[in-house]
Amino acid sequence: MEKIICISGTNRPGNYTLRALRIVADELQRRAMNPVILDACEMTLSFPGSPETEDAGRLRAAVREAAGVVIASPEYHGSFSAMTKLIIENLGFPSSLEQKPVALLGVASGRIGAIKTLEQLRSVCSHAGAIVMPGAVSIAGIRKVFDESGAIVDANAEKALRGAAASLVKFIEEFVHPRQVLEEMVRQDGPPWSATV
């Protein structure tokens, strides 16, 4: 099974971002992937220029070894969270996101959703070299999407979250796997134009 790293980009206790991300992870698992959730609440990361933490090394290694990545962030003040940015900063330079398929998820309590978050996050991830999937998912009115037990109660939101997982899996199966097979063939046999006569 391919490993997919699912990053929750907020360290706020009891946050809705992680709840939404778990729906994406559940769908990835249903589609024979191996989702691994990295919760910002459980990571200690430093700002650039400060001594690196052990979590930063583990984060980079996990992303580097993954077939794909899901980054989820709440919308704070018209942008993605500072914790999400800190996570991206700790992915190094060149970034571990380079050439990785990345699906984006934004959640917001307002009616407009996390559109601004996703626009800016798409730009930052693309700048880091990620292959950002089209169709980023914005969930509006996030506080009404889940009930008090944490179960999802909004069918449209659930469909969108599961759709994000499906799109990422499809991209990996249709574009990443064939490329990997071709690269392996070239390494073993050499390029077809190098055959001796």
Write the layout of secondary structure elements.
Layout (H helix, E strand, L loop, with lengths): L2 E6 L7 H15 L3 E6 L14 H12 L2 E9 L2 E2 L1 H8 L11 E7 L7 H13 L3 E2 L4 E3 L15 H35 L8
Parallel strand pairs: 1-2, 1-3, 3-5, 5-6, 5-7
Antiparallel strand pairs: 3-4
Helix pairs in contact: 1-5
Summary keywords:
globular; single chain; Rossmann fold; 5 helices; 7-stranded mixed β-sheet; 197 residues; 42% helix; 7 strands; alpha/beta
Would you kindly provide a written description of the structure presented here, covering whatever features stand out?
This protein is 42% helix and 18% strand. It contains five helices and seven strands. The longest helix is centred in the last third of the chain and has 35 residues, at 155-189. Strands 1, 2, 3, 4, 5, 6 and 7 form a seven-stranded mixed β-sheet that branches. It has one domain: Rossmann fold, CATH 3.40.50. The relative contact order is 0.16. It is α/β, with parallel strands linked by helices.
Strand content: 15-25%
**What is the CATH topology assignment?**
Rossmann fold
Q: Figure out the total of helices.
A: 5
Contiguous uncertain segments of 5+ residues = none
- The structure class reads alpha/beta
